[in-house]
Write a structure and sequence with these properties.
Length: 356
């Protein structure tokens, strides 16, 4: 949430009301008077975990009264209509509300404070925020993770086959990573639309997110201008491409974790556990493939046939392609895709459906 008037009904032994403004973080409208603008306040407990509050507030405040506020613009004029949000969560020692622990219930329409009528409320659906999150999950958990493994460990695989005129690993890697960039662009536009085309860098998620998107966007540009494989500067591209791609992939994990706890989603704990399971699974497969690749390379070097003396190798047939490790790598990538797809599907479904 942001730029909201908050009437906090708190219970610290005694139920009370206070008037706050929610921007980057909550704070009192008047630091010297937590009950600024409220009158006829009353509160009580309706049972374990349940409290109720009542209060009165003028529709508008005079200039002199508003001057006592921390910022006059933070005192909303109730001659205007506003949506009502209802949320629950903890408070700090100063009775300032902390991040809510549930998806807020939101009034179905704006409240007219000049009339006395019943408002129906439902939990905020946030379809654009959910679509943004789902696309980012698909991009970084599903596509980028698989594409990185293909480029790192599967260059020797299917060496005699072509896909769209390219080596199989390269065709798959390029398709997956271009898809990642496109999904990132769409997801960025969706969340900007959700935020009314404004941007805030006061919390960690958008900061890390924009870095990840920027790094992802740089990758195809670098690839377009890459030197020839035999060029003297090719090694610079190889290291830069690896560093930028790896950095983006690593940073995508904390961006996703933080995104799951943003007010527009606030997914349940089990969604976080599934994401943790994916991270552990990906690291495990990466380590297994790295160890196996080292073993295969060592075996090839150890069992390399002796060179023939000059002048007699012309009648020796060319050795067959060395396919050691190909079958096991195929099994690993198929297993990886199946498990990752399952974890990804679970996270996408939870994101799209929660809290329905």
């Amino acid at each position: 949430m942001g730029d909201d008037n908050v009437i906090a009904c708190t219970n610290r032994g005694t139920v009370s009301n206070n008037y706050q403004f929610n921007k980057a973080g909550p704070g009192p409208i008047d630091p010297n008077n937590l009950h600024f603008g409220l009158s006829s306040t009353a509160g009580g407990s309706d049972g374990p975990g349940r409290i109720s509050c009542s209060f009165s507030r003028k529709k508008s405040f005079s200039g002199a009264r508003k001057k006592r506020a921390r910022d006059a613009s933070q005192v909303f004029d109730l001659a205007n209509s506003y949506y009502l949000f209802f949320a629950r969560g903890p408070v700090d020692s100063n009775d300032n509300v902390q991040q809510h622990t549930n998806i807020p219930a939101v009034s179905a329409k704006q409240a007219d404070f000049s009339s006395n009528h019943q408002l129906l409320a439902g939990e905020a659906d946030r379809p654009l925020a959910k679509a943004h999150a789902c696309l980012m999950l698909i991009a970084w958990v599903g596509l980028a993770s698989t594409g990185i493994l293909m480029a790192r460990y599967y260059k020797p695989q299917w060496s005699s086959s072509k896909l769209c005129g390219e080596k199989v690993w390269f065709a798959v890697h390029r398709t997956l990573m271009i898809s990642v960039v496109l999904l990132n662009i769409i997801a960025l536009l969706l969340i900007l639309a959700e935020l009314n085309w404004t941007w805030s860098l006061q919390v960690a998620h958008p900061i890390i997110g924009i870095i990840v998107i920027g790094l992802a966007f740089v990758q195809p540009i670098m690839a377009f201008f890459r030197p020839h494989p035999d060029g003297k500067n090719r090694w610079i591209f190889n290291w830069a491409h690896w560093f930028v791609g790896t950095s983006a992939h690593i940073l995508s994990a904390p961006a996703i974790f933080l995104g799951m706890r943003t007010p527009r989603l606030y997914l349940p704990d089990y969604a976080l556990y599934i994401m943790i399971a994916f991270v552990v699974w990906h690291v495990f497969i990466d380590i297994i493939l790295e160890i196996y690749q080292c073993y295969v390379n060592y075996s090839k070097k150890k069992n390399r046939p002796e060179e023939y003396p000059m002048g007699i190798q012309k009648d020796v047939p060319a050795p067959p392609p060395d396919n050691r490790g190909h079958f096991l790598r195929q099994v690993i990538i198929v297993l990886y895709v199946i498990v990752t797809a399952g974890l990804l599907t679970a996270m996408v479904v939870i994101t799209a459906k929660y809290p329905n």
